[in-house]
Please model this.
Amino acid sequence: MAQVKPKNFYPTNGPTDSAEVNANYTAFQGSLGTGDINQQNVRSEGVDLRQLSNRPIEKYVAQLRNGYLLSIGAVPAVDARYQSFSLSGIKEYPINHDNTGTTNTGVNKGTKLRINGTAGAEFDGDDFISVNWNLNLWANYIHTPMAELVTAIIDSNTKDGGSGATYPYGSGIGEWCFIVYPKYNTVSNALNDSDFKTAEAAGLVTGVYFDPSTLTGTPGLLTYYRGFDAFNWDHTMVVPSVFVSAGTANNSPFLMVNSNGTTIGGSLNGALGGPQMLNGSHHIKVKNNIGSTKLYGVQLYISGFWRMHGNTTGTGSPMNCGMFLEPDICNPSRVNTDGDPIPLYGVDGECGLERIQIDCTVYSTRGA
Amino acid sequence: MAYRWNKNTIENKDIVESREFDQAHNEFVSLINGGMDRENLPIECVGYPEMKKQSFGKAHLSGNVFTPIAYADQDGVYGTGFSNNNTRGNRIVGLRYGQDPINEGDSFFEVATNSFDCQEGMLHIHWKCNAYMPFYYAFWQAYTSNTVARKRYQWKINIDGVTVYDSSAICQSFFTTNIATMIPISAGNHKVSVSLRYPARGDDADNQVLLQYWGGNLFCHNLYR
Model:
């Protein structure tokens, strides 16, 4: 309430009673108390930017660069080379190499971005969070000869692995990639790695988010499968490892491997291209009943190799689609002690990352 | 500029006509009842609690867009088991020629939409989506000498059917598109749509999977004038 309606003495204009005068002043006082002025008092378009004490649209803005810069031809440090699950048995890694390429779990190191200092970001329901990142993919490092890794499906002669081969050659057709995604910390400003969760698990939104850390059971094509329809993949970005197959022969499927920032490097056939700057984003609408939850930080994670797969038994259409986390290495030539073939058609390797930038903006729907 | 209240001063021992109180008050009342503006209000007096929701703009989100299952078919060549050259046993599923929505290719089809009421101002549109194109058909079709085109796809953002953003053609097997644009927008209901184009069929068979997209996120932010 802010409108003032004092009693007018006109037209009666009689003897003025002190109580009447005081009543008018009381009305003024009641209308002009702390916080009582509202839109009834201020004229249309009467508030200027200088009256705003907060940014009306961007509530919080934070940005971080890891600062890791390599020279052409350099090989990333061990800590900047993130291994596939098939190699390490680790489902996901926080991307946390610092400006020296060394693992650093400190606040505002690697991609561990703190929001609004130690206070954290407060929300009103319907606020929006926007996370954007740029990531320089320096090179993919496969641990297997490419001819064994990539099925030469384009050449019928190699369909059965060439003359005399018992089993087909190659693990696949390059239908694998690493996946990068942000996780959110609403637990504490200490920003411990164990407190970073998906947007859903952090209490910011509803839904079921893609989260490799929730995979359980015996690793496999079906147990480690995540459908595109059953999970929310909004936050994910793919990191390519295969460019293109370039010929009919079995000797030149092009992969981006071991390039180390050069255009011609690589110890295997088909090394192609320099580093790639990839970028991704995640926009979420904070749920209405957010309560006192605060966002203290955001960090990027990486998981791989994930492979394409349809999950419906048999053939035919339509068919659901998703990806599974590859648990096996690639070893088509593996044999047991008797010399019998026990091939593994998985994919194993490392994803070498260089510079990374991440930023987070909280948009206020009080303003936005 | 706001009217500033000039009070009528009543001197000591004046005989005052009560209507003079009216006159003294009414100038103030005319100011306080809807006449205040930037000249009356102190600097930085308006914080988040004083801002009405969506008074400066409004955002809309259409999330988790993926290839509709009804359109997703299994690849006819690279399927399951050794018999068709898939050592891992996984299936490749996605859009194909000869059926909706690609059909014969080279025309845009809609993959995500967002309709909402706008106020006059600017509209920021941000589209992010993952996609996968199998490349084993690039240049040569499996087990044949038939040549096929190297594949690519292209995104387009429309507002009410008018193109406001064209992406370049994307040729990588795995790629995350992350594009944004901002345009002036008029008041009223508007429809933002994201469309996708795949090249026209060359020497390609119906049973080839061409494209799979997922994790699409269409963020629209109307910033008021």
